[in-house]
Amino acid sequence: MSNVYTKLMTARLKLQNSKLEKSGHNKFAGYKYFELGDFLPTVQNIFNDLGLCGVVSYTAELATLTITDGTDSIVITSPMGSAALKGCHEVQNVGAVETYQRRYLWVTAMEIVEHDVLDATTGTDKGAPAKKPNVVEPPKESITPMAGALDGFTTNELDSFARIAEEVTYFVNNDDVPSAKNAVVGLSNDEQKAVWALLESHIRSKYKKG
Question: Which of 18, 28, 90, 133 is most buried, judging by how many CB atoms fall within 10 Å of its CB?
């Protein structure tokens, strides 16, 4: 009889053979990543077929994903991080951290291959990725109104904006625009512009219509 470990391995292989697309885009660091909405619905269907259930929980120190088949369990943990977004109240900062941790727990559990963020953000000023050789810069007249929206912020602030943008994208993709709008409540105009600059155009469009 299959145990929880063999079931999880089967789930990983099934997910690996699924056609998943990355919708998250960190424009600051120049890489794409999986958002929860890109893979979690598929994971839940696979888990249901295999008799598995995953539950995420949090304490002040740890984020935990418990995967069980009703008899045995696998526990995956990650140290809790923190966010200190300017103009945000404590609950918003907690929500940003939990959203980020939740995604990484599932990425770890399902062995989802992601872009190496450190490779993309180290070795240059303020964590910005080094320019690739032979890249043709766009002419100045093609610069959009969002150009410069990320200037003047620290690497930590930009990382926090990326987390909020991820949270907004998740809510918008799940047709919960009110929650997406709540995610930016308390941010200054400049901070909101920075988050807005990190969103894909189709997310901005759905956000506006919501």
Answer: 28
- Cα pseudo-dihedral 34, 36, 37, 40, rounded to 10: 110
Residues 185, 92: Cα–Cα separation, whole Å: 9
Kindly provide the residue ranges of all beta strands, DSSP E only, lying in the chain, ordered along the sequence. 24-26, 31-33, 53-58, 62-68, 73-79
Find where tokens 């949090």 sit.
Answer: 58
Closest by Cα among 141, 151, 135, 139 to 194: 151
Amino acid at 103: R
Q: Are residues 100 and 173 in the same domain?
A: no
State the DSSP code for 108. H
Between residues 7 and 30, which one has the greater pLDDT? Answer: 7
Same domain, 8 and 106: yes
Give CA–CA dist 43/11, Å, rounded: 8
Q: What is the pLDDT of residue 55?
A: 95
Residues 33 and 87 in one domain: yes
pLDDT in tens, 177-188: 888 888 887 788
Same domain, yes or no: 14 and 75 = yes
Distance CA 50, CA 97 (A): 30
Query: Taking the CB of residue 116, how many other CB atoms lie within 10 A of it?
Result: 10
